[in-house]
Amino acid sequence: MKLEIHSKIHSKIQSKIQSKIQDEIHDDDLNKFEAQGVALPPLPNHGNDHGYVEHEGARIWYATYGTGAPVILLHGGLGHSGNWGHQVPALLETGHRVILIDSRGHGRSTRDTRPYSYELMASDVLAVMDTLHLQQASFIGWSDGACIALITAAQAPNRVAAAFFFGCNMDPSGLKQIDQHNPLLSRCLSRHLQDYAQLSATPDDFHYFAEAVGVMMKSQPNYTAHDLSRISVPVLIVQAEHDEFIRDEHAEYLAHNIPDAKLLFLKGVSHFAPLQRPQQFNEAMLAFLHEYQPQN
User: Fold this and answer.
1) Nearest alpha carbon to residue 189 among 152, 147, 244, 135
2) What is the pTM of this model?
């Protein structure tokens, strides 16, 4: 009888494992992302769980989900906070409060006529935190979002509990020569164009918007090794094995110059890992938060 019960329990465990494997999302070529994007949980519909913050000539859109230790997700350039659709449920399931922000000029957020700068967008993040009465949060940054998060950590370390930087550069020398014929980049750009037309207050201006963001990417940020050495929050630098934009040597440079920073390489994925293999990305993200994020 004991053997029979044990066999049934083992069978159920194996069934759950197999189901989880079948449910695991793989979109290495970004075909699914281009076709349908990523679905976020329904927006909260009570209190001040989503809205706009008026700051420095722009309306910055935000949304919050759940309760618990706060985590701010900062998306990549030309995208919007909906690109975190595979990460939000994982964070909610593990008891976190999730704060999404559309960067200035991206998604639902507007901009003024000033050139884009990472410092200005970092100040937008602090304005959202002030509106939500968040003294401190952990940051998960992807690409341009990682640059914004790192600058926030450098300039306002008391507001950043810990910072996870995926696909991050701190000066233009960290960028690779981009292959304009890469089909992944074309599919990602196609999805961004569709989302921009749907979400933006200036839906027909994507190409002007992309050009303005591109100027920022090519010339900023410009942090030196000395600047990096003054960052005092816990940091994990995360680099994809096949990153299309960021040089491996630059990720190593960041980890070497930021005090006590750690470096993690994600195998088999590119700059779009949160979309390509979200389970792999989420495991790294949640392990980091478990180690460093203050618990409520």
Assistant:
1) 244
2) 0.91
